[in-house]
Specification:
The protein has 154 residues and is of the alpha+beta class. It is built from 4 helices and 9 strands, in the order βαβαβββββαββα. Strand 4 and strand 5 form a beta hairpin. The longest helix has 25 residues.
Length: 154
């Protein structure tokens, strides 16, 4: 059995700044051929993407996949709504949490797992301004401590 390799294509760093990630899920994504070729070139943006559940199906909106340059009439709209592939039971559980607890479904990263494109989906809760400030202060303090240790060891 060969171990499947994962190669990260794009990450949504803004999501970690704007939201607390409660839980994450791996989903498949329905794409056409020219979109996969464009993703292989790394021409994808998850920055303003979000997910919705309509009629028991999961969709990602706002994910920008640039048109493939060697493609022709087969290129799709860069911002089209794309279907995510998950078990219905998991989708219904997510729907209950999103409706009841006020969580959001945010794409966190896009990666290849073997030859398949997968999307890491996060169940997220929005951060307040003071939470963001606290995170920035903690990162700054950690960076200062690492610098002090490094300079002391030299």
């Amino acid at each position: 059995m060969a171990k499947e390799t994962t190669k990260t294509i794009a990450q949504n760093k803004k999501a970690y700044h704007e939201y607390f990630v409660i839980e994450s899920f791996e989903t498949g994504i329905e794409l056409c051929g020219t979109e996969v070729k464009s993703i292989r070139q790394g021409r994808v943006n998850l920055k303003d993407a979000w997910c919705t559940i309509d009629n028991g199906e999961l969709f990602v909106k706002g994910m920008h996949i640039s048109p493939y340059e060697q493609g022709n009439i087969f290129n799709k709209d860069p911002l089209r709504v794309r279907k995510l592939l998950m078990h219905r039971r998991e989708i219904m559980r997510l729907l209950g949490q999103v409706k009841q607890d006020g969580y959001s479904l945010i794409p966190l990263s896009l990666y290849f797992k073997g030859s398949r494109v997968k999307l890491q989906l996060g169940l997220c809760k929005g951060k307040k301004l003071y939470d963001k400030r606290a995170d920035i202060a903690a990162k700054t303090a950690k960076r200062d401590i690492e610098r002090a240790i490094k300079s002391r060891n030299q």
